[in-house]
Design goal:
Blueprint (H helix, E strand, L loop, with lengths): L13 H13 L13 H4 L25 E5 L4 E2 L2 E2 L11 E6 L2 E5 L5 E3 L5 H7 L10 H7 L3
Antiparallel strand pairs: 1-4, 2-3, 4-5, 5-6
Length: 147
């Protein structure tokens, strides 16, 4: 087995004694700079102003500035083992999936919209990619996505 080798000394080493003396002296002292009045130079130092991290052309609106998001979904949409179909025209593929105010809406190519309760915003966020554009109006976004 392993044996522990211990040093047998009569007392603390010289280094330990020096450390203990310095430590004892510093116990009742304040750190440097504490309790000293500030100089006027510290108050008059110029403050550096830093521009925003991203240039304006790369900034995206925050969630509270966006009314909603949408993404295209070309293949049939299968939810809970059933294929989603438009309740008005029967279309089952080439959807636009809209996420707005915590609700998910499906829009078919014919322009019919229906609320989809089997999808939540977490599902939408998992399946949507990064936004490639922002638009001022709903119609501009539809045109951008080819609907």
């Amino acid at each position: 087995m392993f044996h522990r080798i211990r040093r047998r000394t009569k007392g603390p080493s010289e280094e330990q004694r020096q450390f203990a003396e310095v430590y004892a002296r510093m116990q009742h002292q304040d750190p440097p700079g504490i309790g000293m009045p500030r100089t006027t130079l510290e108050y008059n130092e110029p403050v550096a102003v830093v521009d925003d991290f991203l240039p304006p052309e790369l900034r995206v609106p925050s969630h509270d500035q966006v009314e909603g998001k949408m993404m295209p979904w070309k293949p049939p949409l299968v939810l809970d083992g059933e294929m989603a179909a438009c309740i008005e025209c029967g279309a089952y593929r080439d959807w636009l999936i809209l996420s707005t105010r915590g609700e998910i809406w499906l829009r078919c190519r014919a322009g019919h919209q229906q609320l989809e309760t089997r999808i939540d915003t977490a599902w939408y966020n998992r399946h949507s990619g990064p936004a490639d554009a922002t638009h001022a109006t709903f119609e501009d976004c539809l045109r951008h996505l080819g609907h």
